[in-house]
Write a structure and sequence with these properties.
By secondary structure, the protein is mainly α. It has seven helices and no strands. It has a single domain, classed as Up-down Bundle (Heme Oxygenase, Chain A). Helix 1 packs antiparallel against helix 6. The protein is globular, with a radius of gyration of 17 Å.
């Protein structure tokens, strides 16, 4: 579980910037005052969340000497250098809504099952806040997408892009961190899964 959360931690800051670029970049096109206020609050919270993960989460990885830069660099290249420039705005909005929805699933699970009860108190606070925020933000991201596009086809395209990448990236990150920690081949690791 620690390395699953480590994967989230190193990916969150760039993900938050992606949401702010694409969802926040639509603020001038939104004529619904309530949705606009929710979007602006969303962008502020996402920026704070990215800072929280960078300051608390990523620094906690630096202490034990975990090398996360190669993993983050590869994901950044794939997501933000290769794919992002190729995709139109509607797909970015659909992707953002889908990512927020996809992040809300583990958020609900972790919080409902109280899986963080034995975690370091600082990390527990960070992730409880993060997961609660993801549950809340799924509504805002979807609201912006619906308001500006609302295309079912784009929703499906977003899901086809996001869901496989989400699981491949998060599984790959977890395995990468387990390998670095020399726990990948341990029988206790397989039992914990």
């Amino acid at each position: 579980m620690t390395h699953m959360l480590n994967t989230f931690t190193v990916l969150v800051p760039d993900n938050e910037n992606y949401y702010i670029r694409h969802l926040g970049g639509c603020a001038d096109d939104i004529d619904d005052q309530n949705l606009l206020e929710e979007l602006l609050a969303f962008c502020i919270q996402e920026a704070q969340d990215g800072i929280g993960h960078r300051v608390q989460g990523v620094r906690s990885l630096e202490k034990p000497g975990v090398d996360y830069n190669a993993f983050v660099g590869a994901i950044d290249w794939l997501n933000y250098k290769l794919l992002e420039p190729l995709l139109p705005r509607g797909i970015h909005l659909a992707n953002s809504a889908c990512i927020e929805q996809t992040n809300a699933y583990p958020g609900n699970f972790y919080l409902q099952q109280n899986l963080l009860k034995n975690s370091d108190p600082k990390m527990k606070r960070l992730f409880c806040w993060y997961f609660a925020e993801e549950i809340e933000h799924q509504k805002v991201a979807f609201g912006v997408f619906e308001h500006l596009h609302g295309s079912y086809f784009l929703r499906v395209m977003g899901a086809f892009l996001v869901i496989p990448l989400f699981f491949v990236i998060n599984t790959g990150g977890t395995l990468y961190f387990l390998w670095q920690d020399k726990r990948l081949s341990r029988s206790s690791t397989r039992q914990d899964c």
